[in-house]
Predict the structure of Penicillin-binding protein.
Amino acid sequence: MLRIFLWLIGLGIVAALGLVLAVFITMRSLPSYSTLKASEHAQMIVVRARDGRELVSIGPSYGEWLDQNQIPQTMKNAMVAVEDRRFYSHPGVDPLGLMRAVYVWATGGNRLQATSTITQQLARNLFLNNSRTFDRKAREALLALALEQKFSKDQILELYLNKVYFGGGAYGIDSASRLFFSHPATELKPAEAAIIAGLVKAPSRYSPTADADAAVARASIVLRLMEQQGYITASEASGIDVSTVKLKESHGQNSVRYFTDWVLPQLDFLAPDSFEPLEVWTTLDIGMQRAATASVQANAPKGAQGALVSVDRDGAVLAMVGGTDYVKSNYNRATQAQRQPGSAWKLFVYLAALEAGYTPDTPVYDRQVTIDGWTPRNSGNSYAGEIDVRTAFAYSKNTVAAQLGESVGFGTVASMARRFGITSPISTYPSMVLGASEVRLIDMTGAFAAVSAEGRSVTPYGITRVTTADGELLYEHKKERQDQLVAPYVAAEMTDLLQTAVATGTGRAAQIGRPAAGKTGTTSSNKDGWFMGFSSGITTGVWMGRDDSKRVAGLAGGSAPARAWAAYMKVATAKRPVEEFTTELTLPEWQLEPDDEAWFGAGGGQDYYFFDEEGNPIDPYGRDYQAPPDDGARPGDGYGYGDGYGADGYRDGYYRDQYGDPRQQRQQDEPRGIDQDFLDRATGATPDGQAQQLRRDTPPSQQGSRQGAGYGRTPTPRTGAPVRVDPAYAPVPSRVQPRRIEEQYQDSSGVKVVEIPNGT
């Protein structure tokens, strides 16, 4: 036993010598006190609004460095009382605290918990990470011993109070005091010092801005420890009311954080890697952000969330709200959530239809339809019968949207959505026309902004430039190329529809006293409500609903979302001039009717064209018919056979020359392109071959030029010959009811004659 005892003493002496040597070497390698004061270990980022005002500071904030004689004694006492009550007696590591931790572990504790001293915490903050390995704890203890040998207790406490993290990006008591109480740490009162000292254990849990009650409860524990250790008397402790401490107002940073959380990750791609402080200049307008936050919070139904995105005409994000309360939930519903848009999706259905040749005035039928076993229903289960495209959109007729989607193709609608910036998966089932595919609010806002921009692409962005703290430019936003997504006339027609929806349709609650265009969206069982629209160059999208997708009583796109949109847009557009929408249409030549072409002086060729159900031209006279060559003669050149055109508007001898009579050349067993009954009706002829004379005014540009040249006379048909008249005097066909066409012109073969999209 004596030999073992001697060996243990020898080993202890060797270990002590080794420890002294290790501490000496470590102490020699430590930086100087001035170097430790100047060291910072993370990047500071200041985010600014479009007018330069600071929105938020992200990263460490160290405040002013306070020397030991500037730090209030009550702050020192509070920190020592709660973090290391034997701070002034131990050598950097607390042997009593270590033995107590070992005893607790040996008597049934879950794990060995060694309480770190203030010196150990400082060593970890300066040189190590927060891993819980034995190796890290050993190095922490060695560094603490070296720090105690190189610096005094007052210096160590000064370093600690100026370096320790207190939450919210604040490092050091001065930064924490300014963050939470709006004054420097030199003015700290005992209650405020107790709150700051209580944060070190768990900054996020006890932060007064996140949970004031938890912060007050923790500060009360600090005051009790100060009383037990003799730093304050019992009467002083009872006279301190922590609950009366006034906290710094957040100045709207609650909502702003949704925006900063969206833009800051973009720095990984926009700015080079570095640890130097950065300043990020953004597009956010503080006044509009406040209005957006207020509008969402005031109109969101109880128990529901709301989100808003507002962009300028170039895509600059002016306001962004990702939820009703950032502290309770930092999930950004404006940029991350994917929800069904309901009828707001019809934007892409009608864009595809307008591009295919429909116009706002094209007649359509609101009636029950079934497509591949799917039967859409209107709100209220009512049907309006024959209406036009404008009315169908304004009142969000689901059956018409379904018919248009089937007409242009569901894949075409999906392609249109992709063209306008929708990045989420898109279904091509028939129900997709009613918004069955989930989308992001920011993507939908960009799509509506593209319509406002006359069909040019708009990409939302939030950062204008990034600089260093010294002003060195690291990144600057360049004006992006705008692709023409649809022709300007299609965008104008779409704007016409959107304007009508606000003026007289489902979006009437979004009226703001100036031209506004928009669309509502409501999903089944009132799970989601949308309103998307634009006015005076600003496009804004609003969504409301529950995160768990449960029903929200009374929620519809035309109610709370539309009201929130209007409340915000009244503020956002207040200082902008009133802008009228460009809805005057300039149609391309391929959309002009044949008669309209004649009005512009188009001559020669056939006056009427016939197409099959695939849109391909067909010959109504049969494949053996050969059209006569154009000999230069035009209507009005003269009368009589052989010298041009006759009074009926057709070349004399048309059916008696070498080209023959097509009616006699057609084979009896060969199907005709169209039956004679329909041809008579289309050309205005009665069954007995007599022309129906309908008045058509002569275009102003051609008045006078036709007098005395064969114009102005009533065409006189030749008996037994097809009747054709001068295009300027052609009968004006009235709108034919599509259902009547199907009823009257469906033969036994099942062939139906239907109205083609452009209304011909």
Summary: The longest helix spans residues 2-29.
